[in-house]
Specification:
mainly beta, Porin, twelve-stranded antiparallel β-barrel
């Protein structure tokens, strides 16, 4: 009743205002552009939509949850299980006898489950290094705007956190050193910050901290810092081009220590979406498909032909009840 009286009072005092366009879309725009100055049309809209909440969030910043090797800001949907099978062949400089690397390769299988749209957990196993890993991925901010009657919030970027633990189940790297069960563990913590600049171009920065409980050789650093850089350019509705570079910040070691120099991972790939699958084809100088390897254990270079052809195949399975 109070709403009706208030509307009649304002309409009496501001009759010329009603000559404006009263479509809901324009009213929403008016509210979003300037919440501090309402006209009578805005008041009608607000009173009739007291509980309405509008989300204008940017979608498909990347095609999948991985750019190539790096995690992207995309997450698995709530109550969905995502299965990714990844394969990297041998190096193309191995020659014709090994069919330029196609005779050899490594595989990784991972399962990621969406507890919520903003929270994922995962487990994976890699044939390279025999590594088993568990992970958690969580969204902190999503690019876009959220409008309700009380507050208009917006973010120019999406921010996602990612943490993983890696277990090395093989024999001790150096039995002459003092080893504990925790010596087999390493960890990674990342913050993925991405922005979709237009319908075609997305760019992501990924500050990374990698920690080894036990390094392969005495004298190496237990902590490594890196900055992952990834981008996506959409070619059409189902195909996009991806680029990924991960420079590692490390100090130099004397040659007498025999510590191999870590090489920055550089990868280029193509995403192809077909139905419920996402196929990713790539060329990369990293044989490992988990962060502990392609960030902290990469020794191949493009200059020497240490390039691996590979692919990722992603398939989601929904566990939501259909009504």
């Amino acid at each position: 009743m109070k709403n009706i009286i208030l509307i009649l009072l304002i309409s009496t005092l501001s009759v010329p205002i009603f000559s404006q366009d009263t479509s809901k879309s324009n009213l929403k725009d008016s509210v979003m552009e300037n919440k501090s100055s309402f006209n009578a049309d805005d008041l009608f809209y607000l009173l009739n939509n007291e509980d309405e909440k509008e989300e204008v969030l940017v979608s498909a910043i990347f095609k999948g949850t991985k750019i190539i090797n790096l995690q992207s800001v995309e997450l698995t949907n709530e109550q969905e299980l995502q299965f990714i099978i990844s394969h990297r062949f041998g190096t193309i400089n191995s020659g014709i006898m090994d069919l330029y690397g196609l005779d050899y390769g490594s595989i990784r299988m991972s399962f990621d489950y969406g507890i919520k749209d903003w929270l994922n957990i995962g487990v994976a196993r890699s044939s390279y290094g025999k590594i088993i890993d568990g992970s958690i991925k969580y969204e902190l901010l999503h690019q876009g705007k959220i409008l309700n009657l009380e507050k208009l919030t917006s973010s120019p970027v999406s921010i996602v956190g990612y943490s993983a633990i890696y277990i090395d189940p093989v024999d001790w790297r150096d039995p002459n050193r003092l080893n504990f069960s925790t010596s087999r563990l390493s960890y990674v913590n990342q913050l993925h910050i991405a922005r979709k600049f237009n319908k075609n171009l997305s760019i992501q920065l990924s500050p990374t901290l990698l920690h080894y409980n036990m390094v392969p050789k005495i004298g190496e650093d237990n902590d490594l810092f890196a900055l992952g850089i990834g981008s996506r350019y959409k070619i059409n509705g189902s195909v996009s081009l991806n680029l990924e570079y991960i420079p590692v910040f490390q100090r130099s070691f004397p040659d007498t220590l025999g510590i191999p120099k870590k090489r920055n991972s550089l990868s280029i790939g193509v995403d192809i979406q077909t139905g419920g699958h996402v196929f990713q084809l790539m060329l990369t100088n990293s044989i490992g498909m988990y962060d502990e390897s392609f960030v902290g254990g990469n020794t191949g270079t493009w200059k020497n032909g240490d390039i691996h052809f590979g692919f990722n195949i992603t398939r989601p399975f929904s566990f939501k009840n259909s009504h």
